[in-house]
Design goal:
Strand content: 15-25%
CATH superfamily: Alpha/Beta hydrolase fold, catalytic domain
Radius of gyration: 18 Å
Structural class: alpha/beta
CATH architecture: 3-Layer(aba) Sandwich
Oligomer: single chain
Order of helices and strands: EEEHEHEHEHHHHHHEEHH
Length: 287
């Protein structure tokens, strides 16, 4: 019998981090993106927990986890260290990491710089950081898709806009983008609204974008290591924010085997739109 879902807190890397936990076995960590929190994995946690020890944190800046005010607190190296320490705090030496959107950026960082902490890596609709940076510089279509990211660089104004339009914005971005709109009924959207209505949550989430842009300006000469753990990429083909071309010609970014599973008629919210298919791909890859 699968254990019930439990809410827990732990101290990692100077912050208090909230996570949910279920199941026993090898460790599987689920990393959400923006504008999400652990709840976006609600269709994956119980299935994976039948065979694995599943941990789904609120990343720093989100929901119940601490929300440092400074942009520098959200550098990818810093938030990745949160997860390295979380693996250790759960009593495991290694984990399989499954990550969506900004969580995927952490996943890639783990695969490049902490491969000894990973068994396998699964990425959902999150581009390799080098590919994303290149596309923003050279692809006008991707710059247009990512125009919101440039808006987020403005101090205070994005927070004010979200505060005034939060429910409408989330309805449009979740249900409005989705093909399977029934996966985002009002009560689900309300959970996201509640999470982002918490003090500091809007700024915390937006600071991920701000920190990334500042890092991109300063790391032009840094050569990233290839991902050196077996990797599966699951990609909803009709992502309005991230073009499918972000998944092309990835060989040089991986020194271990990787594969890509495309899901047609699927938006950015891939694990919510097609939970059964995503769960099958995940479990098949883990076996």
């Amino acid at each position: 019998m699968t254990e019930t879902l439990q809410h827990k807190f732990t101290d990692v890397n100077g912050i208090r981090l909230h996570y949910v936990e279920q199941g026993k076995g090898e460790l599987v960590i689920l990393l959400h993106g923006w504008p999400e929190f652990w709840y976006c994995w609600r269709k994956q946690i119980p299935e994976l927990a039948k065979q694995y020890h599943v941990v789904a944190p609120d990343l720093r800046g989100f929901n119940e986890t601490d929300k440092p005010a400074s942009v520098s607190a959200y550098k990818i190296e810093t938030v990745t260290k949160d997860i390295v320490e979380l693996i250790e705090k759960t009593g495991h030496k290694k984990a399989t990491v499954i990550a969506h959107d900004w969580g995927g950026a952490v996943g890639y960082e783990l695969g490049m710089n902490y491969p000894e902490k990973l068994n396998k890596l699964i990425i959902l609709n999150s581009p390799h950081p080098s590919v994303m940076k290149k596309q923003l510089m050279t692809n006008p279509k991707q710059r247009k898709r990512s125009s919101y990211m440039f808006f987020f660089q403005i101090p205070l104004l994005p927070e004010l806009f979200m505060k005034l339009t939060l429910r409408k914005t989330f309805t449009k971005s979740f249900r409005g983008w989705a093909y399977n709109k029934e996966q985002f009924p009002n009560d689900v959207i309300e959970e996201y609204v509640k999470a982002f209505s918490k003090k500091g949550a809007m700024r915390g989430g937006l600071n991920w974008y701000r920190a990334a842009f500042r890092s991109w300006k300063s790391d032009n000469k840094k050569e990233k290591k290839p991902v050196s753990v077996p990797t599966l990429i699951i990609w909803g083909e009709n992502d309005k924010a991230l073009g499918k071309e972000l998944t092309y010609d990835l060989d040089k970014y991986f020194s271990a085997p990787f594969e890509i599973k495309y899901i047609p008629k699927c938006s950015h919210w891939v694990q919510n739109e097609y939970p059964e298919l995503v769960n099958k791909y995940i479990l098949d890859f883990l076996k």
